[in-house]
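Appendix B. Raw example, untouched.
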Amino acid sequence: MKLACISKPFSSEQVRIMLTGDLNAGLDRYARYYEHIHGEHMDSRVLIPEILRAFLDADREFQSWSRSGAGDQIRGICTPSSLNGSIKSPA
């Protein structure tokens, strides 16, 4: 399991999202898996920030980009028309 045992809930900014049915079902399964591995029931909503944290921590390319200071600069704007991976520069 990529998610470590959660020692305590963290206070943070509230973010509201809508999950598709299959994603919500997957999150509920992941909460049951968490309980199976760690022996503690955890509401799936509490897992969302921890899953996001684990994802960001595991993304080596993002970590490298963050450490480089590039995160302080705006490179471009992603648009739906840039599905080929290119980024349009702001006008």
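End of appendix B.
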